[in-house]
Amino acid sequence: MVRQILFRVIYADENADRDTVHNALISQMTWKPALLRNHMRHRIKSVAYPAVAPHKGKNVQGILVSGLTDGDIRRLDRFEGDQYDRKVLGVELLGEDGVFGTGGNVEAEVYMWNYKYEGLRRGEWSIEEFREVHLSKWVGEAGEHEYQDIETDYAVAAVSDVPAKDGGDKSKAQKESGAKTDAADVEDDDMDAAV
Question: Which residues form the signal peptide (predicted)?
C-alpha cells in the first residue's frame, strides 16, 4: 500500500505525516523492509490495485508496519473489503547486511486475495505503473470515492483509537508486506515517503 493511501485510510489525510497532531501517532509506528516468499502481487481485471496470492518462486517485497491501533486495523479491514482476507504468514526482515532473512523472521498479517485466481490478469502488478498512471485517482479530491466505506470511522478515531493489544505487530501485505503489520502491501518504494 502506498504510504499516502495508508494515511488516507487511517487518518483521512494522505499528508498526515506533515501534520503535527498525526505525527505523534505516526511516531508510534515502525516501518521495516520485509519479504513474503512464494507469493506475488497479481494484476486484477478492471482495477488498478493488486492482489497478493501464492505463486511459487515469486516474492513480494514490502514494508512491515507495526504500532497500528485497533481502529487503524478496523479501517484497513473495511477499506480492503471482502475481496481480501487478513492472514497470518511468515515474512523475512531485511538485515543490516541488506539481505532478507538476516533481520529475522516474523509472523505478519497480510491481506490475501480471497477468490483464488479468479479475476486476476497475467503478469505482475507494478508499483511504478500505479504511481505514474493511477495514484492521482486515489489521493486528493479525485480519490474521495475510494474511501466512502470508512468515512464513519473518522469521527470516532481520535477518541477510540488506542494501540492494538498485540502492539500492532501484525500486517495488508501487510499490504507492504506484513501482521496488521501490513508488509505485503506497503511498497519498498514507500520507505522514502514519510509504508
Answer: none
pLDDT in tens, 29-72: 899 999 999 999 999 999 999 999 999 999 999 999 999 999 99
- Whether the pTM exceeds 0.85: the reply is no
In the block, residue with C-alpha cell 486528493? 140
Residue 29: alpha-carbon gap to chain centroid: 13
CB 177 within 8 A of CB 39: no
Residue type, 175: K
Question: Mean pLDDT by 10-residue block, N- to C-terminus, for the chain (195 residues)?
Answer: 86 79 81 96 94 96 93 92 96 95 96 91 93 85 58 49 47 38 43 31
User: Residues 178, 62: contact at Cβ < 8 Å?
Assistant: yes
Q: Give CA–CA dist 170/134, Å, rounded.
A: 28
Domains and CATH numbers, the chain: 3-192 (3.10.490.10)
Taking only Cα atoms into account, the Rg of the chain, rounded to an integer number of angstroms, comes to 15
Cell of 102: 538476516
In angstroms, rounded to a whole number, what is the distance separating the alpha carbons of residues 153 and 11?
Answer: 10
